[in-house]
Amino acid sequence: MGLVELVALILLLGWIGGLTFNIAGGLIHILLLLAIIVFLLRFLRRII
User: Fold this and answer.
1) Could you report the per-residue pLDDT of 1-48, keeping only the tens digit for each?
2) Quick check: 29 and 14 in contact, CB under 8 A?
3) Is 38:4 a contact under the CB 8 Å cutoff?
4) Measured between alpha carbons, how far apart are the two ends of the chain, in Å?
5) What pLDDT, on the 0 to 100 scale, is given for residue 7?
6) What pLDDT was estimated at residue 1?
7) CB neighbours of 43 closer than 8 A, spacing ≥ 6?
8) Are the C-beta atoms of 8 and 45 separated by less than 8 Å?
9) In which domain, by residue range, is 40 found?
10) Which residue, 11, 12, 25, 42, has most beta carbons within 10 Å?
11) Kindly report the CA angle at 22 between 17 and 28, in degrees rounded to 5?
């Protein structure tokens, strides 16, 4: 697992944790958005 995937996984876990415990509010959804963007970029790089 590369560094980008590790960061994306940490962001995704942070989003899930925040959604479950409802601690950080809107910030957690920004983390989800960042994780999705990272996964999409990695996916597109493998295709191209």
Assistant:
1) 688 888 888 888 887 877 767 665 677 788 888 888 888 899 889 887
2) no
3) yes
4) 20
5) 86
6) 66
7) none
8) no
9) 3-47
10) 11
11) 65
